[in-house]
């Protein structure tokens, strides 16, 4: 992988922040966008912009082709069987809420169980809490091992005949761990439960095949994988999506409307009420082309190497705690240095042009499990280099000296 050539395609990376060349290590929150994606969105607005599925005029059909063409790219990217199984959403959060509000509320009742893990992002936690409150179902958690991983024996113990839904993140946005979602899906199915996968942190970084995983639903966000904000998708097995009721009603999603009754369009449009995020879908299609050209396997290997190098360099810093195991992880390294608050670490790093995330990362239950109120997180993507890791490690050494009193 020619990272120098890849970096050339990201205009934002070539600037100084606070007098230093930018080192962007916050891609798990949101990735940067390559020129091809920026151009595709601009070209769409300059040449093709119109509403979709309505106009008979040329721009209307160009916009519709661009929007539906992007859906086909997502289908192929995830290896879904049909474009009817790809619902465009605002992102992972909206996709998971759609499953919770439409599917889960209709199948869960008193005595039923929904199985999660304590490492879930709030987006894959709170929608299920709301379902539990509304239906009388109970939430159950697969316990974590001391290093944050989950064991299949524990999955077997947690899932039973009362389980209706199992929802697990493929990759942890804090620990960088890749969870065995394919094996969990098989266990869920043996008990008649449905498997939901939060793919926010997996889709950008590794090859995903929803048919191989045999998950029932899969959610992801475009902005973490080089696409614009405001676009993502929900994959769902066709038979399940067909059973489900829409949760948003209005234009675009109807077949026939009468004064007292209406009927819905077929899949996937019945779930896409209102004018959709057309330019976002165009940008997502361009991002998929960009990632496919480089190769998801190459991206994954590059990030594995970078995070192993980062783990090695950061472990050498006195007083540092790195969370999660040093194996089977994507490009995410989460840490604390002594008693220094991670916001202070991130602020000092910013003065040196280095962008990392600090906070609870939308994982408050996991933070409590880690016994940390917050952490700092460096996350890598295809445009990061060993030099970025060196800059981070060197700056952290200086941070440690700066805050030496708190590290002891
Ligand atoms: N799930 C995980 C694991 C995430 O990391 C994130 C975002 O950080 C989300 C869900 C929510 O994604 P979005 O804010 O794009 O809906």
Note the topology.
Layout: H1 3-8, E1 16-17, E2 20-21, E3 23-24, H2 35-48, H3 58-78, E4 86-89, H4 92-107, E5 113-116, H5 126-135, E6 138-141, H6 152-158, E7 163-169, H7 181-190, E8 194-198, H8 210-213, E9 217-221, E10 232-236, H9 238-243, E11 254-257, E12 262-264, H10 278-294, H11 296-315, E13 320-323, E14 332-337, H12 342-351, E15 354-355, E16 357-359, H13 364-370, E17 375-379, H14 386-402, H15 404-407
Parallel strand pairs: 3-15, 5-6, 5-7, 7-8, 8-9
Antiparallel strand pairs: 1-2, 4-10, 9-10, 11-12, 13-14, 14-17, 16-17
Helix pairs in contact: 2-10, 3-10, 4-5, 11-14
Bound molecules: pyridoxal-5'-phosphate.
The site of pyridoxal-5'-phosphate (PLP) has 13 residues, from α4.
Note down, in words, how this protein is organized.
By secondary structure, the protein is an alpha/beta fold. It has two domains: 3-30 and 296-402, Alpha-Beta Complex (Aspartate Aminotransferase, domain 1), CATH 3.90.1150.10; 37-293, Aspartate Aminotransferase, domain 2. The chain is built from 15 helices and 17 strands. The strands form five sheets. A seven-stranded mixed beta sheet has the order 4-10-9-8-7-5-6, sandwiched between helices. A four-stranded antiparallel beta sheet has the order 13-14-17-16, with helices on one face. Strands 1-2 form a two-stranded antiparallel ribbon. Helix 2 runs antiparallel to helix 10 and helix 11 (296-315) runs parallel beside helix 14. The longest helix has 21 residues, at 58-78. The protein is globular, with a radius of gyration of 22 Å. The model has no long low-confidence stretch (mean pLDDT 96).
């Amino acid at each position: 992988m020619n990272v120098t050539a890849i970096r050339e395609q990201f205009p934002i990376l070539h600037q100084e922040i606070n007098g230093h060349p930018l080192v962007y290590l916050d891609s798990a929150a949101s990735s940067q966008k390559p020129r091809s994606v920026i151009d595709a969105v601009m070209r769409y607005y300059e040449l093709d912009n119109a509403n979709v599925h309505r106009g008979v005029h040329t721009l209307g059909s160009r916009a519709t082709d661009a929007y539906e063409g992007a859906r086909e790219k997502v289908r192929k990217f995830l290896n879904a069987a049909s474009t009817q199984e790809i619902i465009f959403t605002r992102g992972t959060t909206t996709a998971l809420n759609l499953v919770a509000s439409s599917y889960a509320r209709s199948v869960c009742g008193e005595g039923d169980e929904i199985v999660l893990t304590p490492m879930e992002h709030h987006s894959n936690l709170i929608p299920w809490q709301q379902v539990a409150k509304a239906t009388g179902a109970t939430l159950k958690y697969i316990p974590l091992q001391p290093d944050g991983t989950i064991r299949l024996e524990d999955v077997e113990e947690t899932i039973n005949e009362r389980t209706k839904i199992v929802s697990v993140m493929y990759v942890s946005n804090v620990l960088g761990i890749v969870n065995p979602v394919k094996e969990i899906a098989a266990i869920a199915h043996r008990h008649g439960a449905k498997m939901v996968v939060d793919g926010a942190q997996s889709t950008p970084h590794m090859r995903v095949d929803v048919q191989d995983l045999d998950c029932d639903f899969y959610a992801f966000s475009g902005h973490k994988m080089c696409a614009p904000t405001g676009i993502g998708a929900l994959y769902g097995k066709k038979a399940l999506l067909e059973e489900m009721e829409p949760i948003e009603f209005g234009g675009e999603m109807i077949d026939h409307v009468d004064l007292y009754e209406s009927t819905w369009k077929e899949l996937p449009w019945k779930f896409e009420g209102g004018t959709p995020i057309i330019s976002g879908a165009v940008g997502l299609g361009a991002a998929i082309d960009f990632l496919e050209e480089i190769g998801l396997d190459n991206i994954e290997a590059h990030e594995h190497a970078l995070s192993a190098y980062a783990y090695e360099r950061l472990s050498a810093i006195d007083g540092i705690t790195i969370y999660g195991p040093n194996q089977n992880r994507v490009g995410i390294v989460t840490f604390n240095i002594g008693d220094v608050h991670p916001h202070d670490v991130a602020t000092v790093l910013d003065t040196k042009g280095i962008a990392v995330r600090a906070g609870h990362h939308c994982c408050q239950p996991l933070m409590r499990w880690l016994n940390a109120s917050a952490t700092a997180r460096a996350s890598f993507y295809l445009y990061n280099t060993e030099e970025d890791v060196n800059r981070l490690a060197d700056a952290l050494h200086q941070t440690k000296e700066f805050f030496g009193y708190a590290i002891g």
